[in-house]
Each structure stands twice: as C-alpha cells, then as structure tokens.
C-alpha cells in the first residue's frame, strides 16, 4: 500500500490581466496554494507527490517562480517523498526552451518522453512502484496512451495522464488534447490513474472500484471554478484505490445573483452588495430586478473596492417598467421618443429578442441618466 497526494492544473504564473493592480497578489495566491499542497503531502505522510500536468500556466514561467517550485519539490524529496510530474497542455515541452527543457528539478521524476517505453520504477517501503506517463506531442506520440499498458503483475502500477475524457461536461476536444474514455483506461489495467486537464473534481469508477480521478484545479483560475477547490489523498493497493478530497484553495471564487428590485439608486445598491462581501472573495454578481434608476457600475465598483478581493458586476436589471423610464417617456424630446418606441418594441418581442432589446435599452438609459437625466 502507498499514499499519494495527487494534484494537477495549478497554472502557476497565470497572467490574470482582468485583475488590474491585484495581478501579482493573485499570482502569489497560486504559489501559496502550491506550498499548501506540499504541507498537506508532508502532514499526510505520503510516498508520492503527483502533479498530472499544467503545474505552470505556460512553458516559459518566471525564473524566480521556477526557483520557488524547485525548492518546494526538493523539500519533499529531502523528506523521502518523491515528486512525480508530467507536462500538460499549457506547460508542454514542444518548444526547445520550455521549462522542463531549461530547468532541472532535483529529486523529482519528470515523465516527459512522448510515450512510455518502460515505466519508471522505484521502491517504496519494499514495494516496487511502476509509473507510467508521457508528454504528449501530436507529431510523435501516436500510440502513447496504449504504451501505458501494465507491464507485469508484481508491484503497484500508477498512471499519470493529462487528458480529455469523452462524455465529460468539460469535453471540448482539441488537437493538442489526449482523448480517452473509461473503457480504455480500464484496459490499461493500472492500479490507479492520476488525471489532469479538467478543472472539476471527478472520480471515474466502475465494477466496484476507482480507476482514476480528476482532482480539479486546487485554486480557482476563472469563474466557474467556484467554491472549495481540492487535491486528493489516494491510498493505492493492488487493483484498489481509495480517494479523499482535501481542501486546498487560498481564495474562493463565487457566482451569485442579487435581486435589486425597487432599489432607488447606487448607494442603496452598494449597501445590498456589500452585505455579501469578503476580503478573500472573488465574486461575479449578476444584478436583477426592476430598479428605479440606471445603475452606474463603475461607481458601484469604486464604492465596493474594499469589500471584495475582486468584484465582477453583470447588470441584468430591468428599466422597462421603472419610474425613470416612465417619466422620460412623456417628454417631447429625442430621448422621450426613443423610450416610447423602445417600450413598444420590447413589449411585442419574443423572450429571446426581449433580452437583447432590454440590454440595449438599459445601456441607452444609463447614458441618459449620466448626462443630465437626474433621479426620479
């Protein structure tokens, strides 16, 4: 029996350009998450620390960051924990100056051949461990997945695969991906396959046993990777694996909806949004309901700058029946004419067209309000 800390898709050195002046801080969050994974590996006395691809967000990460990673992996190796890596789609080895060609990772097994000629072998507490993994290159990796076939009966056989599972909710096959399905994995006859590439946790089980697992991204990289994020602690025996989720993230991403129906203005909207606030939260908030006046999103973000680590506001509020729209509808002006005709068009639209028209209507009324429309 061996214990593995299995993670993937850390995406260290991701750019996060949408975060403005918090880019460096968010990049540091990801490094903290990497270091938390190291601590979890030590705390749980694992034998292997497995990263199933995309440790880095691209193939040429910052040299200082690489140094931090090298030091962290050596920290494990010095404690008798063997780090095992495969390149992924982001940190691939296609370029001659890719990170795994330019840098050594002392004490770490980096499985970067285009296919498995022979599995890497090591002994853990008297048990022979065989490790199967490759760095996919479409031009030279034909048959690479089949090359992960179990070679012998003795010992424990662990696969590492950065691949795209057919039928997954995340399925979006591209030429640089390695497609697979569960029957194919079962045919490899490995004791456990450590998966990477898809960012949501998923266990692949059949016939009463776990064959493989996606741990998901240990830190949310983008909205959709919401809530707690995980690595997994895996206990592997001959043709048997047990998986335990361990929370790993530094900050949390969430997507929520807030009904601002009847809200009279920005100050009241800001107060309602602030009630959801947390300094560690990255929140995408969709605002709904019929408000009494157009919302100034730039002003709201400024008012709420200290309430969240990052706030992304999506305005889906309605102004079609607001007091502001009804008031200017009666004006004998260009904007009054616009509101009358727009309300007629929206009232006659089908549901799908209405969404588009209401968004355009809201955008124009926001501009009317900003340039002297006043509050109702």
UniProtKB/TrEMBL annotation:
UniProt keyword terms in alphabetical order: Hydrolase
GO molecular function: hydrolase activity
Keyword Glycosyltransferase: no
UniProt domain Calcineurin-like phosphoesterase: residue ranges: 2-200
InterPro entries: Calcineurin-like_PHP, DNA_Repair-Maintenance_Comp, Metallo-depent_PP-like, Mre11_N
Pfam families, per the entry: Metallophos
SUPFAM superfamilies named in the record: Metallo-dependent phosphatases (SSF56300)
Superkingdom of this protein's organism: Bacteria
Record carries keyword Cell inner membrane: no
Gene3D superfamilies the UniProt entry points to: 3.60.21.10
Name of the featured protein: Calcineurin-like phosphoesterase domain-containing protein
Classification of source organism: Bacteria, Pseudomonadati, Thermodesulfobacteriota, Desulfuromonadia, Desulfuromonadales
């Amino acid at each position: 029996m061996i214990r593995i800390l299995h993670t993937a898709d850390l995406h260290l050195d991701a750019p996060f350009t949408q975060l403005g002046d918090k880019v460096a801080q968010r990049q540091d969050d990801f490094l903290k998450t990497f270091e938390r994974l190291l601590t979890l590996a030590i705390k749980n006395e694992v034998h292997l620390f497995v990263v199933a691809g995309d440790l880095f967000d691209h193939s040429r990460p910052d040299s200082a960051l690489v140094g931090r990673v090298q030091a962290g992996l050596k920290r494990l190796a010095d404690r008798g924990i063997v780090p095992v890596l495969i390149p992924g789609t982001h940190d691939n080895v296609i370029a001659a100056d890719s990170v795994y060609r330019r840098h050594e990772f002392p004490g770490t097994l980096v499985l970067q051949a285009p296919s498995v000629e022979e599995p890497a072998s090591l002994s853990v507490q008297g048990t022979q461990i065989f490790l199967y993994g490759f760095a996919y290159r479409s031009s030279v990796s034909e048959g690479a997945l089949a090359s992960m076939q179990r070679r012998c009966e003795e010992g424990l056989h662990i696969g590492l695969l950065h691949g795209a599972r057919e039928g997954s909710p995340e399925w979006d096959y591209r030429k640089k991906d390695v497609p697979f399905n569960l029957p194919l994995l079962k045919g490899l006859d490995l004791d456990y396959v450590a998966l990477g590439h898809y960012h949501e946790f998923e266990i692949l089980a059949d016939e009463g046993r776990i064959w493989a697992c996606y741990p998901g991204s240990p830190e949310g990289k983008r909205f959709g990777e919401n809530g707690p994020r995980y690595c997994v602690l895996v206990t592997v025996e001959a043709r048997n694996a047990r998986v335990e989720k361990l929370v790993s993230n530094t900050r949390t991403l969430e997507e929520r909806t807030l009904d601002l129906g009847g809200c009279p203005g920005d100050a009241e909207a800001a107060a309602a949004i602030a009630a959801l606030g947390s300094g560690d939260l990255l929140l995408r908030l969709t605002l709904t309901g019929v408000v009494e006046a157009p919302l100034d999103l730039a002003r709201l973000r400024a008012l709420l700058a200290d309430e969240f680590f990052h706030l992304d506001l999506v305005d889906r509020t309605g102004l079609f029946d607001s007091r502001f729209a009804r008031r200017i509808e009666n004006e004998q002006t260009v904007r009054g004419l616009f509101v009358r005709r727009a309300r007629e068009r929206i009232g006659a639209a089908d549901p799908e067209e209405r969404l588009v028209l209401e968004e355009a209507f809201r955008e124009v009324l926001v501009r009317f309000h900003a340039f002297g429309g006043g509050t109702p």
